[in-house]
Design goal:
heterodimer; A: mainly alpha; Cytochrome Bc1 Complex, Chain D, domain 2; 2 domains; two-stranded antiparallel ribbon; about 45% helix; about 10% strand; globular; disordered N terminus; B: mainly alpha; 10 helices
């Protein structure tokens, strides 16, 4: 892999030398896309699907129970196509929930695990894997090949959608950023990192189709909850609460806008 | 764009009502709900940090859903608030040392929060190259903002240009209300002295931004 990367770098230098004038302005990050495609062919994220499947069926926690009765909106234990409809309103909690918040509920209520401890370990690091990341990847993968289909039938779903839209354009913090600051225009990059224009439906669908995603720079699969947390971090905002209202409002807005995207997870991202 | 949206609204709204596909909350309600949710979505964080998620007046004006245009009055208010926010270095010197500015311009650290703690950094970076081309030989530069290579070649390094450049970095909204550019001085990310160094990096004839290769 490092060989391939240096080849790309050499190629880029040759191209720059050939083109000559204003090389920086003409530079595109497309060569990085080649690396991502190569990684996607042997997607390491598949390992998270397998681990998540095992965790889902194993008897675990103080109650020594599996997660097989967990309800993601299609009925207890029915996973096929469930992720494609999330976030949605759940009458048992009276709230709009996403995949991760449902998993959190099931880990607590079915297996008797400690809510605080789960949230503490929600994201993996180099020393510790995260069950939440593996379980999310497995559950989402059961909608692979299906289209994102968030429906906004319940009034609370429509509220969440509108709040998500409001937050998407809401500028705040020491950098004055909103989501649109980086994701509202065509062909933009932060340094060499391409930024999808999320006001464009096609690009929105390409984003939504591939989360959870294996992130090369993190050496792990990250979920949408982490993606939003990470954006907040870069915006210099405080740690965004796991399964917080803001995170679910944004996910409702983004997933609905990404409706029609053919889900293929785990995706591969930088 | 505006016409297309208007057309969609004319056809779409009655259609939604007709099929009984109930309504969305209006802008006022949405704002109320949204602000309430923001207030509860950073649990366990000290007030000194959650304060960052509270909008000031200019940010409120600059948060138009769908990127709608500002009214004349709104633009004027943002410009006025921004102009009033600008503070200058105690030394009065608006162009510092371009070599110090060069380091700042490519530095992206500072001010990020993990686990409720602000990252430890000697000083905040100026974040410039995340969005702007500066030294034309540096490939790793973003394009969210305009390319600034040759900035001083075009403008010179007069007192007036130093002042304009300083003010645009301290608070970009004084000149371009609601620009994507962060209000780096007014928002507290950079000190007046740091901004003066970045100004020098942009306008000094000896700076790589302005040397032809």
């Amino acid at each position: 892999m490092p060989v391939a990367r240096s080849d790309i770098a050499v190629l880029a230098v040759v191209c720059l030398a050939t083109w000559g004038a204003v090389p920086v302005l003409a530079q595109s990050a497309d060569s990085l896309e080649v690396g991502r495609k190569m990684l996607a062919e042997d997607n390491p994220g598949e390992l998270w699907v397998q681990r998540g499947e095992r965790l889902f069926h194993d008897q675990r926690g103080p109650r020594n129970a599996s997660l097989e009765q967990c309800d993601f909106g299609m009925g207890p234990g029915r996973l096929e196509g469930a992720f494609a409809r999330l976030p949605r309103y759940f009458s048992d909690t009276g709230k709009v929930e996403d995949m991760e918040s449902r998993l959190l509920k099931c880990l607590v209520e079915l297996q008797g695990l400690d809510r605080g401890a789960i949230i503490q370990a929600r994201f993996s690091n180099l020393d510790r894997a995260s069950d939440m990341e593996a379980l999310s990847t497995f559950v989402a993968s059961r909608s692979n090949g299906m289209k994102m289909d968030v429906r906004l039938e319940h009034p609370q779903e429509r509220e969440m959608y509108k709040v998500g839209e409001y937050i998407f354009y809401r500028r705040t913090g020491p950098t004055d950023f909103a989501c649109t600051s980086c994701h509202g225009d065509e062909g933009k990059r932060i340094r060499l990192q391409d930024l999808p224009n999320m006001t464009d439906r096609k690009q929105m669908q390409a984003v939504i189709a591939g989360w959870p995603a294996y992130r090369g720079t993190h050496s792990t699969v990250r979920t949408m909850q982490h993606r939003l947390y990470d954006c907040n971090w870069q915006m210099r905002l405080p740690d965004l609460g796991f399964a917080s209202d803001v995170s679910i409002a944004l996910t409702t807005y983004l997933n609905y806008r990404g409706n029609g995207a053919v889900i293929q997870v785990p995706g591969v991202r930088r | 764009m505006r016409i297309r949206m208007a057309t969609r609204a004319v056809i779409g709204v009655p259609l939604l009502v007709a099929v009984g596909c109930a309504s969305f909350p209006d802008a006022q309600t949405t704002r109320g709900l949204g602000e309430k949710m923001v207030a509860t979505s950073y649990p366990g964080m000290p007030e000194s940090l959650t304060r960052r998620a509270v909008q000031d007046r200019a940010q409120q004006i600059c948060s138009k859903v769908g990127g709608a245009k500002l009214t004349q009055e709104e633009a004027a208010e943002v410009a006025r608030l921004s102009r009033d926010s600008i503070k200058y270095p105690a030394s009065g010197q608006l162009a510092g040392d371009w070599k110090v500015g060069a380091n700042l311009a490519y530095a992206g650290q500072g001010g990020r929060i993990v686990g409720g703690v602000v990252e430890k950094a000697k000083e905040n970076g100026a974040l410039c190259s995340n969005c702007h081309v500066l030294d034309p030989r540096e490939v790793n530069a973003g394009n969210v903002g305009p390319a600034l290579a040759g900035y001083g070649v075009q403008r010179g390094s007069s007192e007036a240009i130093a002042r304009l450049t300083y003010e645009r970095i301290y608070n970009a909204w004084a000149y371009l209300p609601c620009s994507i550019m962060p209000r780096l001085g007014a928002g507290g990310h950079l000190t007046p002295e740091q901004i003066a160094h970045v100004v020098a990096y942009l306008i000094d004839p000896a700076s790589p931004v302005n040397t032809k290769k």
